[in-house]
Amino acid sequence: MKNASAQLRYLHMTPRKVRAVAGLIRGRMVNDAEAELLLHRRRAAVPLLKLLRSAVANAKQKKMDNTRLIVKEIRVDQGPMLKRHLPRARGMASPIQKKMSNIMMVLVEDERAKTPKFTFIPAPKKKKAPVASRTKKTQDKQKEGGIDEMPMQKGSRRQNGFWKKMFQRKSV
User: Fold this and answer.
1) What is the CA radius of gyration of the chain?
2) pTM value?
3) Quick one: 3-85+94-109 is in which CATH superfamily?
């Protein structure tokens, strides 16, 4: 049984908060785990998703089949702690512990794994226009008389008089 692993160290998040999200993907297929993390609202989902993708990339290097990968183990341990103090009344100070997490993830190729319910297709990357052409467009707009003389589109805020209402002076 082949396995691939990845680890994330010194994540500035408490282990308790990370464990809550890590428990959701333990024992799941990689596609399901990735979908779960993409849609999860908690802040710990972002670094866990990045770690999962790193483990999948490590599995690809070992020539493992992505459709049969399962998250076998995910362990969240306490990392080092930054100790700070908060000043209080009467010259006292209360301690603050800024905790960190170390995360270890192990993926396993399972022969008995079912075919995935769906295939994950990442969104295409947006292409930016070259910087020179963008500056040229803005220069052309300035020569024509600025942004105010641009043609209005149907349903735009300009056409509806939004800015006139917004900055209208009230006289008493």
Assistant:
1) 26
2) 0.69
3) Ribosomal protein L22/L17 (3.90.470.10)
